[in-house]
Design a protein that fits this description.
This protein has 458 residues and is α/β, with parallel strands linked by helices. The chain has helices at 5-29, 38-41, 97-103, 155-162, 213-228, 258-272, 305-321, 338-347, 383-396, 409-412, 434-444, and strands at 46-47, 66-68, 72-75, 80-81, 86-89, 92-96, 107-109, 116-118, 123-126, 130-133, 136-139, 145-147, 150-154, 164-169, 174-179, 195-204, 233-237, 240-243, 248-251, 275-279, 350-351, 364-367, 370-372, 403-407, 416-419, 426-429, 447-449, 456-457. It folds into two domains: 69-179, Copper amine oxidase-like, N-terminal domain (Copper Amine Oxidase, Chain A, domain 1, 2-Layer Sandwich), CATH 3.30.457; 182-457, TIM Barrel (Alpha-Beta Barrel), CATH 3.20.20.370. The chain is built from eleven helices and 28 strands. Helix 4 runs parallel beside helix 6.
């Protein structure tokens, strides 16, 4: 039977619709393929139009300053320096800018009202909250403080500005600033035309192994491994660490001590080495259960709107008070209900967990400005079997499964030893550690680790 004009028009429209639908479906799954461009993956990305509904009640600028008299300092040569003025603010120690500059052979020019530091090779311009060193710009982690008409700079910012690493000795209350030999990566940009990966350190709080000074240094060594290889990573942080059975309640807003200063210094160091921090609940526990074991948000815990908002806001307030930037939220053990996730979405654009168990292999967009980002490769519980399983998943290269995994740093520290003889950080890092093996695989398979807040349609 011959086709009439209506049949031809209908067939043409049907063909166009089929092509459009096929294109959109392919675009959805092509985001993680190796040769995509912006038009292919943009359907998955969120727009840059999100604004949190919450203004923190506690601000870093309002936090008190106190003088410290019982902590000693050494710079490069290991000799304890007597009578170094030191102050504390928001779990950071500060010393006079002029003092550290003189020790490191920099001249300081304050004629413009803000410090300008220089020596034969470097020029550093400081503002209250930022720096420019040669061509590199960044944010100061502790800000520049004017205390009694003297500029003070935090240990964290001294590490970053002068290429040093701070080694804390809690027992002797001593901080040694020694040369940090890690080399900067060639490129930290996001080549979206390549395959991407996502790395997350899990359950990171100031308790258990993280209250040991040597372990804090080992976390810095792990960060240097990722930094040197140009691999961005995430840190899911528990702001308060509680172990009821041990009568241990470490609230970083109220417990001022060198252990907590060391821990916040580690957070700062990770940020400066390519880390990005998110909230992993507030205390990650409830009742008599310890942090990291229980949860502070589920269908049975803090399930009302007021309770859920209180958990979220206490975490945000702590981050604000400590000047720790946060970019995502992850509910402990992914136990948040859909109702609680909706409340979290009022505060955060990125939720580092799957939307639901039927959407657990790839990122999921619920609207134009929120993303749920899962970890389909799971975690490393058994280093022998899980490391190889994750490596195999990278090698498979399935483009429909996001190459995202998480790892408890307390497992990796068992593979690291170091000592500081001759005022150098001499490291023995087992190349067969889970993190080292996965880093090698990511590089070999040409994946590019990215931050969660880079999954944005710019």
């Amino acid at each position: 039977m011959p086709w009439n004009s209506k049949t031809l028009i209908f067939s043409f429209i049907s063909l166009v619709l089929i092509l459009l639908i096929s294109y959109n479906v392919l675009s959805y799954f092509n985001f993680f393929r190796s040769n995509t461009n912006k038009t292919d993956y943009s359907i998955l990305l969120t727009k840059n139009n999100f604004k949190s509904s919450y203004t923190p009640k506690i601000k870093f600028s309002d936090r008190p300053i106190s003088e410290i008299n019982d902590v000693s300092l050494s710079i490069l040569d290991g000799t304890s320096l007597p009578n170094v003025p030191m102050i504390l603010k928001s779990q950071r120690y500060y010393i006079p800018l002029n003092f550290i500059s003189e020790k490191l052979n920099y001249t300081v020019d304050n004629s413009s009202g803000l410090p300008f530091l220089s020596n034969n090779t470097n020029k550093i311009l400081l503002t209250e909250d930022s720096y420019e060193k040669n061509s590199k710009r960044g944010s100061l982690r502790g800000n520049l403080l004017n205390y009694n008409n003297t500029f003070y700079i935090s240990i964290s910012d001294i590490e970053e500005l002068f290429d040093l690493i701070a080694i804390f000795n809690f027992e002797n209350k001593k901080i040694s600033l020694i040369q940090d030999d890690v080399k900067a990566p060639k490129n930290f940009s996001i080549p979206y035309n390549k395959k991407i990966a996502m790395i997350r350190f899990e359950d990171f709080g100031c308790g258990y192994s993280n209250i040991v000074d040597k372990n804090q240094t080992k976390i810095k060594i792990m960060s240097n491994l990722l930094y040197f290889n140009g691999m961005k990573f995430h840190v899911s942080w528990m702001p308060r660490f509680i172990v009821p059975s041990a009568n241990f309640d470490n609230d970083l807003l109220t417990k001022d001590n060198i252990i907590n200063v060391g821990f916040v210094d580690v957070l700062d160091y990770m940020l400066n080495k390519g880390g990005e921090i998110g909230l992993h609940g507030y205390s990650h526990q409830s009742g008599n259960v310890a942090s990291g074991t229980g949860e502070d948000m589920s269908k049975d815990v803090n399930s009302t709107e007021a309770e859920t908002r209180a958990v979220i806001e206490k975490g945000i307030d702590t981050a604000s008070a400590l000047n720790i930037p946060i970019s995502y939220y992850e509910s402990p053990h992914y136990r948040a209900t859909m109702y609680q996730k909706k409340i979290i979405s009022d505060y955060f654009q990125f939720l580092y967990e799957h939307y639901d168990y039927s959407k657990k292999d790839n990122i999921y967009k619920t609207d134009d400005h929120h993303l749920f980002v899962p970890t389909p490769l799971g975690r490393i519980s058994n280093p022998a079997t899980d490391t190889q399983r994750i490596i195999d998943k990278f090698n498979e290269g399935n483009p429909d499964v996001l190459k995202s995994f998480y790892y408890h740093p307390s497992t990796e520290i068992e593979y690291i030893d170091f000592e500081t003889n001759d005022n150098k950080l001499n490291i023995n890092y087992n190349p067969d550690s889970p993190l080292q093996r996965i880093v090698k695989t990511i590089k070999k398979d040409k994946y590019t680790p990215v931050h969660i807040d880079e999954l944005m349609d710019k």
